[in-house]
UniProtKB/TrEMBL annotation, chain A:
ABC3 transporter permease C-terminal domain: residues covered: 277-407
Keyword Transmembrane helix annotated: yes
Name of the molecule in the record: ABC transporter permease
Keywords carried by this UniProt record: Cell membrane, Membrane, Transmembrane, Transmembrane helix
Protein localization: Cell membrane
Swiss-Prot/TrEMBL GO biological process terms: lipoprotein localization to outer membrane
MacB-like periplasmic core domain segment(s): 19-246
Family: Belongs to the ABC-4 integral membrane protein family. LolC/E subfamily.
Pfam families (alphabetical): FtsX (PF02687), MacB_PCD (PF12704)
Species: Sphaerochaeta halotolerans
GO cellular component, one term: plasma membrane protein complex
Top-level lineage group: Bacteria
Automatic annotation (TrEMBL), chain B:
Tagged with keyword Lipoprotein: yes
Domain named Uncharacterized protein TP-0789: residues: 68-246
SUPFAM superfamilies cross-referenced by the UniProt entry: Prokaryotic lipoproteins and lipoprotein localization factors
Protein name: Outer membrane lipoprotein-sorting protein
Organism: Sphaerochaeta halotolerans
Pfam families to which the protein is assigned, alphabetical: LolA_like
UniProt KW Lipoprotein keyword: yes
Record InterPro entries: LolA/LolB/LppX, Sporulation_related, TP_0789-like
Amino acid sequence: MKFILQLAVKNLSRYKRRTIITAVAIAVGLMMYIIVDSILRGASLESMRNLRWYETASLRVYAEGYWEDRAFLPLENSIEDPASIMSLVEGEQGVATVRTTFAAEMILYSDDFGENGNMNVKVTAIDPTQDFEVYRFEDTLVEGRFLEPGEMDGLLLGSWFAEDIGAEVGYWVTLLTRGKGGFYEAFDMQIVGIVNCPNPNVNRTLIMMDIAAADTYLGMENSVTSIDILLPEKTDLELAKVAIQAKLPEGLEVFTWKDLAQDYLAIVGAKQGGTGMILFLVFIIAAVGVSNTMLMAMYERMRELGMMRALGMRDRDILLSFLFEAGGIGLIGSVVGIALGSLVNIYLVNTGFDFGFMFRNMDIGFRISSVMRGAWSLSTILKAFSAGIFLSMLVAVLPIRRALKLDIPTCLHHQ
Amino acid sequence: MSKRIIIVLLGLTILFLPVSLFAITAQEIVREMDAQATFETSYATGSIKTVDRFGTKESTFKAWSRGTTDSLIEFTSIAERGQKILRTKGSLYLFYPDAEELIRMQGAALRQSVLGSDLSYEDMTEEKTTLDDYDVTLDGSETVRGRDCHILILTAKTRQVAYPVQKIWVDKETFLTWKGEYATNHGRLLKKMEVLDTLVIDGRTLPKETRIEDAMKSNSATWMMLDTLEVNIPLESNLFTLENLTW
């Protein structure tokens, strides 16, 4: 066995050019695999984080019946006496804030916007004193100012939404909506600030106003549509959900961010198949490169193989020698590929690529608005390393076995 | 002295007796107005024309009704052919023939617009019980389209109605609502309604062409036009059932 190993190593150094070319093919394939996996994994992780930071928080409490009718944002299914619920919720090491979300028609006027228009929008009424403890909008202001507590006519817009409708700070709009119970209400609001956050969904649609103003206009009588809770990152949300649900009075339901974003997560789940396919294709390309090189190497060395058999070397030993040689090439390629992939990944994880120019006008299904960053995955690196060696050996088996089936004179006369 | 007072009071009573006997109250006007608009059964054909910034759209329909609760509308225009809206007491159903799908509209879903018009499904489900939902006051008289009208101010008693304040002009003779202005609690005008043409059926004057204008948006209005109307006619007993809707 020692001789066979020595022979394999010797052959690696004897055919330097072939070894290098094959190893480079493997290295490039594995590097691509690591990079693609890192970008997709990073995009997925960042999307989940942006969902929690700007859309869903960790947990949310709704009144019974709200979830079934959520598409209509019903104010009738609201939480009465939210203050008492907040005190129950905040005992669970989390912070909570109240929000009221309602559907409205936004009416734009030619005085400010150049022409009259209207559109259906979703408005989120927030408590400016609490909301920043749960959501991370405090660093997202790009123009104007944030809402002030109790401000009756201030509106905050997402930057892409503002851009789409041509809105600027200081412009006036009218919100036409239905209050709790169904009565019509209309109120004039002035845009006081524009925010730009890393969540494209929020940037495209965000409209925020003060919750006290919404309470007055919509006749909410201190009720709210949701209580949003932020828990520490490592919290087991399913356990926390059960614990909080147990504390709540009848008629309230707790949802985790995964429940709230189930539509998005279903799309992500469906995309996993596509992602797996991309990675599989990257692997196939690498494997085809390796197998082709090994095949060429085998046919090049057919006479050498015949000579070894003529000198009395057993077929099993010849097979092992060639397999070890292929494995050696795989090992060199894997080490180099992982080293190169990791180097690129350092940049991807820390800096990333800015795709803002693309994401502005298209929805790629991730909650990322500009910079796509990578993510480290030890399992991917280990998988790539072992697959690089294993695949090299695997693709070498077929040509070796084929050569070993030929008789010795044919091998010796092989051109 | 007391005798003189009695005589004066008697005199005043006699003087004002005709006025108090024949003056109609706001509530009576509304009751009469509701009664005039309700038939035992009816069948109508007509159209809804909607004009907004995207252009003009016209849909034609056939409609059957029974009392104040049951009605069925079937759209006959090409784009919506076969779509039906069934209203029974407390429920509203939509049927889409292409999808062979029956949808029950309830809660906030009723607030959606019907075929993009200025009418909502909720407007269609409103039963003619104005006095249950509104306090009514008489606010003088005015001539509309040459007709002498009472002006009524309707203020919502609950938050469960769409329009918190309504100002309507009701014909003193026929009790037809010629004009209406619908506003928010703070007096912001939302919609304006005006009857442009009428027809007389069974001795009652009814709107033949009505214009509903969205006061919040420029160039947005809906015209409701009735081509034919038959009242108090026999209707099949299963007309207002779900089975009939999907058949």
